[in-house]
Amino acid sequence: MKIAIASGKGGTGKTTVAVNLALSLQDAQLIDCDVEEPNCNLFLNRELDQLTEVSSMIPEIVEENCTYCKKCSDFCRFNAIATIPNKILTFPTLCHSCGGCIMVCPEGAIQEHEIVTGIIRKTSGDDKKSPELYEGLLDIGQTMASPVISELKKNIDPGKTSIIDAPPGTACPVLTTLEDVDYCILVTEPTPFGLHDLKLAVEVVRTLEIPHGIIINRSGSGDNSVEEFCMNENVEILMKIPHDTKIAQLYSEGIPFVQEMGHWKEKFIQLYSSIQDRYSREIET
């Protein structure tokens, strides 16, 4: 079963939930898709081995063949190519490697050039007490996270439970992460800002028709607007993690709180069981 942990914005406690849930389960995989800033391993502190590099193909102009007809730049919806009088410019960080510019060029004036955009790493050794961690890491200066995420997700073992830590927000990297997941936990905080971004995230998972529920982190620190929204929109609140000094202290020390507060491990196991039951019922229907 593939369970994604997502949030409408950063800083809600999404990674905290992902790590503590993965640590509470037997033989789980933890897939860190927040490739711009993977930080699950800050809590696991495991050694990582590089598995592979991720590369993308970007256009390279053969100037002597180019007639500056603009067909390539007119085609590129991402503005990765610009044609000016007697000059053509490329912007590799905007390129989505679709290859369309090559197809529309009538002069054969565009070639492809391979660049490395990121790497995939996994935990070394075999530690049965800790989840198997895979993480993607986008190269500094690169902006296209989705290819790294797609390559990272190839390591998901269908025979295991995979907890997938998604990037924050609702942009393309999140959509790539949520593709083909079985369930999505949306983590939010009980504040007006949290509610604003939660609404966007709920709209995304509803559009993608992914079963979902909410975890309210730092519960008790804000107002009731998130709970009122969930009640009005018929969105299930799966768990509330209180605004607790002990939890905050462990977080600041990089310690997953299920390791020091054993009763929380039981709560996460129950959370997983309830999600599994709901998913099974939906599959049957």
Task: Describe what you observe in this structure.
With 285 residues, the chain is α/β, with parallel strands linked by helices. The chain is built from ten helices and eleven strands. The protein has helices spanning 14-24, 41-44, 71-75, 100-104, 146-153, 172-178, 192-207, 225-233, 245-252, 262-284; strands at 2-6, 29-32, 48-61, 81-84, 87-90, 110-123, 132-138, 162-165, 183-188, 212-219, 237-242. The strands form two sheets. The chain has a nine-stranded mixed beta sheet, with helices on both faces. It has a two-stranded antiparallel sheet with strand order 4-5. The longest helix is centred in the last third of the chain and has 23 residues, at 262-284. The protein starts with a strand and ends with a helix.
Annotate the secondary structure layout:
Blueprint: E1 2-6, H1 14-24, E2 29-32, H2 41-44, E3 48-61, H3 71-75, E4 81-84, E5 87-90, H4 100-104, E6 110-123, E7 132-138, H5 146-153, E8 162-165, H6 172-178, E9 183-188, H7 192-207, E10 212-219, H8 225-233, E11 237-242, H9 245-252, H10 262-284
Parallel strand pairs: 1-8, 1-9, 2-7, 2-8, 9-10, 10-11
Antiparallel strand pairs: 3-6, 4-5, 6-7
State the helical fraction. 25-40%
> If strands are numbered along the chain, what order do they take across the biggest sheet?
3-6-7-2-8-1-9-10-11
- Tell me the series of helices and strands, N- to C-terminal: EHEHEHEEHEEHEHEHEHEHH
User: What is the count of helical runs?
Assistant: 10
| Mean pLDDT across all amino acids | 94
Strand content: 25-35%
The span between the termini is: 17 Å
